[in-house]
Amino acid sequence: MKNKDQVEIVTYNPKYQKSFKDLNIEWISTYFVVEPNDVKALDHAEEYIINKGGEIFSAILNDEVLGVCSLIKSDGKEYDYELAKMAVSPKAQGKGVGLLLAESAIKWATKKGASKIYLESNTKLKPAIKLYEKLGFKEITGISLSYDRVDIQMILSI
């Protein structure tokens, strides 16, 4: 029997689609401005992420989504997947949910044969940057940016 207080990381399930969008809109609007690329990916996650070989991960506790993230399959040569759209509910922040999500995503990408995972972030998100560094991501430059809010790019070599 599963411990009811244990967070479970699950892969894409349409029933969690609304939480994927809501959590992302909530965190983006707290720190930044929601951009057209956000809306496109969040409103059409299946089309833009799942159907193109990516995955969406949800952190579930007692049937509530506490956090989400996605891996978007790259069509370029610089990296295999982009770790994107990571958001954790304010009430669950600082409790290791982001780490669980990122570790699950990295494990999933590794099983798919990935050698590099890329991400874009902003340096004012200090806890997120610390998390990425802890996971082994290193700062890079030179890949064209998807969002105005991005001021740091990182890559993980698996």
TrEMBL record:
Domain N-acetyltransferase, first and last residues per copy: 7-158
Pfam family, one: Acetyltransf_1
InterPro entries: Acyl_CoA_acyltransferase (IPR016181), Bact_Acetyltransf (IPR050832), GNAT_dom (IPR000182)
GO molecular function: acyltransferase activity
EC number(s) per entry: 2.3.-.-
Alphabetically ordered keywords of this record: Acyltransferase, Transferase
PANTHER family: AMINOALKYLPHOSPHONATE N-ACETYLTRANSFERASE-RELATED, AMINOALKYLPHOSPHONATE N-ACETYLTRANSFERASE-RELATED-RELATED
Protein name: GNAT family N-acetyltransferase
Organism field: Flavobacterium chungangensis
